[in-house]
Amino acid sequence: MQAADMGDDLQQVLITEEQIGHRLDELAQQIDADYAGQDLLLVGVLKGAVYVVADLSRRLRRSADMDWMAVSSYGSGTKSSGVVRILKDLDADLTGRHVLIVEDIIDSGLTLSWLLGNLSSRGAASVEIATLLRKPEAMKVQVDVRYVGFDIPNEFVVGYGLDYAERYRNLRFIGTLAPHVYEG
Ligand code: XMP
Ligand code: MG
Fold this sequence. Notes:
The protein is α/β, with parallel strands linked by helices. It has helices spanning 17-34, 50-57, 110-120, 179-183; strands spanning 10-15, 41-46, 65-73, 84-88, 98-106, 126-134, 147-151, 174-177.
């Protein structure tokens, strides 16, 4: 789905498909270098990270295993509470593995900070984080993120895996929605 398919629901394109692709090229090169000679397990966080995992992993010049986790942050509306529930756990045993958590976005950082602790306690050799987007709020919680695609303003964004009420995940770009979409 592209901008022209959105009618007047689109407010602004923040990051184009081309910009995403170019940045993922750079991140993949860094990951290739950093994990040279090591096994690598990519852990995608459903559902938002589906496109990031797909497009990032295919840019790697080595094989990487892939697993998925689904979590829900209890909380009201669009703010997460830090209380996280596992909806779907990993299939893989993390013992001795080099784990790279792949996320679509870090907002408050509460979800990732919990996830980092949870996965680190399973005997992994290392656990690092890659996120396509990071909001300035994320600075308020101490989470070490090794790979960041883009720092974005503190606005609600959709596309490239990110949704508003499950809509617009399949946009090719990252954008913001016109106010009338939220109003009903
Ligand atoms: P925290 O605040 O714990 O939450 O870092 C991260 C999760 O919140 C969702 N999130 C968003 N989803 N547009 C979205 O579609 C946004 O702008 C946005 N900000 C946060 C997302 O599920 C993420 O994993
Ligand atoms: Mg969501």
